[in-house]
């Protein structure tokens, strides 16, 4: 969506009544945003910073301006958080062909394929990671809690750190599954949509 | 990962959209500027998604999960991946766990000890059942005069789905020998509830109201190996509205084993309606976590 001139004007006026100073403030905030996107490991941080500035301009209403307290860059950080969620929620390297967006499909027809991909991806993990994720998710609720406490003790870390470690493996599995599904979708020529 | 700057409980409330807007915004800023906080939020989101799939979220949390968390970018895809992970590990559990295999992998001394313990437990249970049955068959002692108390039946351990109130063993012990007729009307009934995963459907426990009772002693069986300093039980209606709260409960050895006992006024319950108890364990640090839910349907 293109940014309207009115939204851009409103943003600049909010940053500073003097246009030149507003331009400098705009550049300062853009640099901060780029740094944060870089720090978060995002590809194309400058594009994401621009997207954040555009989104911030679109969503900045006169009410928000009237009620805003504190440093203005904080408003851009709040918008940047959602831009980052969008960025991390998609996998730009693994775009599904149109009509074969398996990962986003709501039915369970591809469940078997997903399970097959998961098995394959589990084998691709290192033994340490595979053992950790296996033990992390093993068992029903009560057993799972006990397993996780034991696992954290064995790894000499606390539970939040263990959860983050499991999350990183899970993210790795997610990317692997999406790539595997993409490969499976490509090998189905009869679907030709 | 540096020291955690965001509390788990606050992070969870943030993801469910339960925080005031200013606090919500503060965490957005923090997560954007600090990769550790962002990752922590994602890891807590993993747990929430797992709880959603397993049906462990309360009605309110489930609603917020669907309306708030799933509306965030990329979250639906995470949900699908989690479903696959859970299916995979559930299947692996079904395939891998077999008691004979597990038993045979244990050392001989442990196998012998377990076998002896199991035998001792079975023999003790058999003897206890025999004594109870004999007691129940004996006629009630004859009381002099018109103030004869009503017969106190022995406590019964009833497994879902049919749980009927019986006379309370706790009250039986403390009762005077003669009870005035007006007090007899207010005698408490007794029932045992088991924790269940499914909020509705087949296997729903039924709780029978005793017309003569003003309150009901309910035993909430604790099927968990974890111990907490105290427990808290909350009675909710089907919509998740809190009807009454029982804080500072202590676990005790009751009819069903380790359990909590609470007295519930029958005026809170209506026949034909579905309710549930939500039990939380409170640690010595005061941290509370939901450990079990006991859905049940009230019948006349």
Task: Return the average pLDDT of chain A rounded to an integer.
Answer: 84
Give the H and E element order of chain B: HHHHHHHEEHHEEEEEEEEE
Reported for the largest beta sheet of chain B, the result is: 6 strands, mixed
| Residues in helix, % of chain B | 25-40%
> Radius of gyration of chain A from the CA trace?
23 Å
Overall shape of chain A: elongated
Low-confidence stretches of chain A: 92-107
Number of strands of chain A: 0
Helix content class of chain A: over 70%
The main β sheet of chain A shows up as: none
User: Can you count the beta strands of chain B?
Assistant: 11
What is the overall shape of chain B?
Answer: globular
Distance between the termini of chain A: 27 Å
Can you offer a commentary on this structure?
The complex is a heterodimer of chains A (193) and B (300). Chain A has two domains: 1-94; 95-188, Arc Repressor Mutant, subunit A, CATH 1.10.10. Chain A is 72% helix and 0% strand. Chain A has helices at 5-15, 19-39, 45-59, 62-67, 73-89, 111-124, 127-137, 141-155, 159-186. In chain A, helix 3 (45-59) packs across helix 5. The longest helix of chain A is centred in the last third of the chain and has 28 residues, at 159-186. The radius of gyration of chain A is 23 Å and the shape is elongated. Chain B has nine helices and eleven strands. Helices cover 39% and strands 23% of the residues of chain B. With 300 residues, chain B is an alpha/beta fold. Chain B has helices at 8-15, 21-33, 35-54, 59-67, 75-96, 99-104, 108-137, 169-174, 181-184; strands at residues 162-163, 166-167, 189-193, 205-208, 215-221, 230-237, 242-249, 252-254, 257-265, 274-282, 288-299.
């Amino acid at each position: 969506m293109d940014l309207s001139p009115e939204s851009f004007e409103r943003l600049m006026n909010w940053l500073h009544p003097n246009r030149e100073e507003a331009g400098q403030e705009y550049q300062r905030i853009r640099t901060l945003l780029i740094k944060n996107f870089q720090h978060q490991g995002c590809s194309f941080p400058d594009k994401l910073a621009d997207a954040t500035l555009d989104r911030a301009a679109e969503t900045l209403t006169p009410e928000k301006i009237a009620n805003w307290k504190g440093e203005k860059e904080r408003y851009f950080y709040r918008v940047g958080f959602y831009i980052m969620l969008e960025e991390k929620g998609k996998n730009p390297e693994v775009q599904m062909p149109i009509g074969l967006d398996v990962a986003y499909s709501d039915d369970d027809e591809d469940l078997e394929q997903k399970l097959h991909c998961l098995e394959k991806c589990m084998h691709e993990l290192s033994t340490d990671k595979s053992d950790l994720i296996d033990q992390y998710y093993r068992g029903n609720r009560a057993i799972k809690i006990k397993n996780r406490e034991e696992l954290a003790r064995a790894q000499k870390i606390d539970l939040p750190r263990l959860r983050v470690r499991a999350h990183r493996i899970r993210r790795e599995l997610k990317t692997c599954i999406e790539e595997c599904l993409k490969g499976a979708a490509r090998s189905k020529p009869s679907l030709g949509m | 990962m540096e020291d955690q700057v965001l509390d788990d409980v606050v992070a969870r409330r943030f993801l469910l959209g339960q925080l005031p807007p200013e606090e919500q915004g503060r965490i957005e800023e923090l997560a954007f500027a600090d990769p550790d906080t962002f990752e922590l939020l994602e890891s807590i989101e993993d747990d929430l998604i797992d709880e959603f799939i397993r049906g462990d979220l309360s009605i309110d949390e489930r609603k917020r999960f669907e309306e708030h968390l799933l509306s965030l970018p990329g979250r639906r895809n995470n949900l699908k991946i989690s479903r696959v992970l859970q299916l995979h590990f559930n299947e692996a559990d079904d395939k891998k766990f077999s008691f004979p295999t597990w038993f045979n992998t244990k050392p001989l001394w442990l196998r012998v000890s377990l076998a002896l313990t199991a035998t001792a437990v079975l023999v003790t249970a058999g003897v206890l059942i025999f004594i109870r049955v004999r007691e129940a068959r004996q006629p009630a002692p004859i009381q002099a005069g018109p103030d004869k108390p009503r017969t106190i039946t022995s406590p019964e351990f009833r497994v879902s789905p049919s749980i009927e109130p019986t006379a309370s063993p706790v009250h039986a012990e403390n009762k005077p020998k003669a009870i005035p007729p007006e007090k007899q009307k207010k005698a408490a009934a007794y029932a045992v509830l088991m924790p269940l995963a499914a909020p509705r459907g087949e296997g729903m426990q039924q709780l029978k109201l005793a017309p003569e009772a003003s309150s009901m002693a309910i035993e909430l069986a604790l099927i968990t190996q974890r111990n907490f300093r105290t427990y808290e039980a909350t009675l909710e209606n089907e919509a998740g509205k809190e009807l009454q709260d029982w804080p500072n409960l202590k676990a005790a050895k009751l009819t069903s084993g380790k359990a909590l006992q609470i007295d519930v006024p029958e005026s809170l319950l209506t026949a034909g309606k579905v309710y549930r108890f939500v039990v939380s364990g409170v640690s010595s640090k005061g941290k509370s976590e939901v450990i079990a839910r006991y859905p049940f349907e009230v019948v006349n």
